[in-house]
Amino acid sequence: MNTSIVINTDLPVKILNKGKVRDIYEVDNNLLLIATDRISAFDIVLPDPIPSKGVCLTQLSKFWFDYIKNSVPNHVISTDVDEFPEELKEYRKQLIYRSMLVKKTEVVPIECIVRGYISGSAWSSYKKDRTVCGMKLPNGLQESEQFPEPLFTPSTKAKSGHDINISLTEMKKLVGSDVANKLNDYSLKIYNTAAEYARKHGIIIADTKFEFGIYNNEIIWIDEALTPDSSRFWPADNYESGKPQPSFDKQYVRNYLNSTGWGHNSKPPHLPKKIINETTKKYQEAYEKITGKRFLFQ
After folding, report:
1. Taking the complete model, does pTM exceed 0.90, yes or no?
2. CA dihedral (3, 288, 91, 222) positive or negative
3. Hey, what domains does the chain have and what are their CATH numbers?
């Protein structure tokens, strides 16, 4: 798939939210999530889409939700457009492969971040004062080094701008001890299961983030699942701590933007065709490595 699909916002159902990447509609008592080809960096949507990106996000999420469903319940009802409500059938071309019909939940307002390796903002924080999200860590860690045990580092969900890191104690005050403990347990269970699988398939999941909601008094996993947008994916075959790692995620785009001198607070520059094509390739390669299948969605 080499062209970007334009998503028609005039679907015959109510639009609830147009996010950085996903458009969310209300369908009966459920939600329709559509992953567009938009890409954001530094909390800003860039002017150029990444062809097939939304398909990669949806199909990878589908894979992970299915792989882990027996351990952690999730919100997926169907990813098959032919099973969607009748009024959506004529929009099949723009919905196929990039949309999910999911349960509508009461979203828990916490970003559940799990870090298996020290990189990105965690590395920057550690260099400054030997802490990551307020947790004191031992001296001598190297960039990209694996933690002895994955760290659960929650943050608040900001409606705009950056999320704010909080401690487990602060999270308990916000959502209650029972919910906080369940989010902690589920997040670590998902990460450990996925990281073990991915490593065997050539990818290190350095860190990732999850969201959860409450449905019929049960906490379930929602939103997206272990994608290059929500995770830091590294190739396992040339991993070496002590330096930054190449990646299958949008870090490649962030690196390009930083190289232009853009200050993150103004209109972002356009992405060159080479950067767009290479980013598409990275997303598709991540899908193929993890699923073991060719990316053949047309």
Report:
1. yes
2. negative
3. 14-105 (3.30.200.20), 107-251 (3.30.470.20)
CA nearest to 126, candidates 114, 115, 110, 138 = 138
Task: Report mean pLDDT in 10-residue bins for the chain, 298 residues.
Answer: 56 92 95 96 94 96 98 97 94 95 97 96 94 92 96 84 84 96 98 98 97 98 95 95 91 92 94 96 95 90
Pair of tokens at residue 155 = 């943050």
φ/ψ of residue 76, rounded to 5: -70, 130
